[in-house]
Amino acid sequence: MTTATLPSRNGAIAALARPRVHVDAVMLEARAAELAKRSIKTSAKLAGIDIAIRCCDFTALEGKDSDGRVRSLCAKAITPRPGWSDIPSCAAVCVYPNRVATAKEALAGSSVKVASVATSFPSGLVDLDVKLADTAQAIAAGADEIDMVIDRGAFLAGHEDVVVDEIVAIKRLCGPIHLKVILETGELGSYEAMRRASDISLEAGADFIKSSTGKVPTGATFATALVMCEAIRDFHRRTGEKRGLKLAGGIRTTKQALTYLVIVNETLGPEWLQPELFRIGASLLLDDLLMQLEKERTGHYAARDYIPKD
Asked: What is the pTM of this model?
């Protein structure tokens, strides 16, 4: 994926004048429910599990996380199931800025990227200069990707220019480093607000838009994934630029993951089903993917005790 073109503030602010996209909630939920009914079995299921593993972002974002836990998580991201050489590595490990150097060292020589949350994750409620310093610390330590959070309070109060200014500034600091913009859809209140937040984030320079921090009760849902996919699709049709989608928050089962793959495939196309354009932020998901993979291969489920722990 090419990095998003660095936006100018004037260009991004001008985009705010575009009419808001109306979202028919009933039709959106009906379409999401229809896609969730798709049955994926045998070889298609195996292919879907492979894609989901490749697109997984592991997270070490708890206050109790240590350097040792980060190293353990990195080892699992590189080799999800020791002894099964055909299982791919995960896409990235996401940590706080002060753990980036540890993750970078642990992942050296692998294809797994180091992502770092920044901009006062998960609330985003600090001044822009603090957000920029937080991001700069992560970049200096070697982060390959930055996950920033928008100021939901400013957005919901109608101060969209504040949100745009912050994304523009963070993206300019990131340069070629991929920037994922977290909308925290569970706090936005409506599908139209989710669509609007998606649209202005893409216009302001987000390489990815991301559903959730995973720190609020409602994270990704099939309907929110669909509305975000439609924003990315329409942006691509208008500009020719491909931007990515990251889903996070409450994704724990293979069935959920496969439904998200269906939504992305049907809305954006199969070219989006790769780590450069799609991520699932769900550390708890990987164990279920591995169990389902063993079931498809052997006809028997492995007990969770047989799945390596991070």
From this structure: 0.93
